[in-house]
Amino acid sequence: MTETATGKTAILLGATGLIGGHCLEFLLKSPRYSKVLCLVRKKLPIINEKLQQVVVDFDNLAAYAEQMKGDDVFCCLGTTIKIAKSKENFKMVDYVYPLEVAKIAQQMGAQQYLIVTAMGADKNSFVFYNEVKGKTEHDIKALRYQSLHILQPSLLLGDREEARTGEKVGEAVMKTFDFMFKGPLKKYRAIEARAVAFAMVHLATINQAGIHTHQSDEIQSIYDKYAQQ
User: Fold this and answer.
1) Residue 2 falls inside a structural domain
2) Smallest Cα–Cα separation from 188: which of 178, 201, 199?
3) DSSP per-residue codes, 8-58
4) For an engineered disulfide with 190, which of 11, 130, 147, 155 has Cβ 3.0 to 4.6 Å away?
């Protein structure tokens, strides 16, 4: 990923997550950004001259508007019903917070928003998880950012801090039958979280106006093509 430094500011949500951790790594290395502003519940044990951590109360994001001045917003927030413990809490993390930050950051000058949702996201879905992800996409699209990239990965591979038994089982199954995911089924192949994070940061560098949705196979292709450059 080669680019001339532009002195831009990146805003990152979800830096402690599976994708967000890798995204932070790539953002700190990217010459595109002179500052990486992380919105966190508690500070990360990371020291970097480009990193600025803002400890926020996500239930009162408007109070931190002046600290959300940036160019590109990267949203890697996401949880599960098991971890959130209720549908209401899940919706707060996967819908309310991403949308609220999108609104505030846009008001403060951000022109590009990149978000990880999920394959199957559909606001009309009968599956609660997919419905919430789809509603998040729909309402952020309505904000009309100059550039909006939506990444819809399949099952994520990588080491999480918290155990997700169902995903571990799914990961084992996907790896066993990986050879079957070809042609039209390629987009269902499991994907490394690192590849998703890389694609996310890469897409931010191409300055492509409009709304763009990237499914898992395209995300993998971006990683395969550009990660070694």
Assistant:
1) no
2) 178
3) EEEEEE-TTSHHHHHHHHHHHH-TTEEEEEEEESS--S---TTEEEEE--G
4) 155
Domain of 117 in residue numbering reads as: 8-226
β-bridge partners, 54: 39
Cα–Cα dist 1/26, whole Å? 9
Express each pLDDT in 119-133 by its tens digit: 999 999 999 999 999
Report yes or no on 40 lying in a domain: yes
Q: Provide the CATH number for the domain around residue 101.
A: 3.40.50.720
Task: Tell me if 194 sits within 8 A of 22, measured CB to CB.
Answer: yes
Domains: count for the chain: 1
Tell me if residue 215 falls in helix, strand or coil.
Answer: strand
Cα pseudo-dihedral 138, 139, 140, 145, rounded to 10: 100
State how far the Cα of 75 lies from the Cα of 219, in Å rounded to an integer: 16
| Residue 35 counted as domain residue | yes
3 in a domain, yes or no? no
Residue 162 has pLDDT above 60, yes or no: no
Residue 122 CB burial class (10 angstroms; 0-12, 13-18, ≥19): middle
- For the cut 90, the answer to whether the pLDDT of residue 187 exceeds it is no
**What pLDDT, in 10s, does the model give residues 15-59?**
999 999 999 999 999 999 999 999 999 999 999 999 999 999 999
Q: Which of 195, 200, 201 is nearest to 220 (CA)?
A: 195
Q: What is the pTM of this model?
A: 0.88
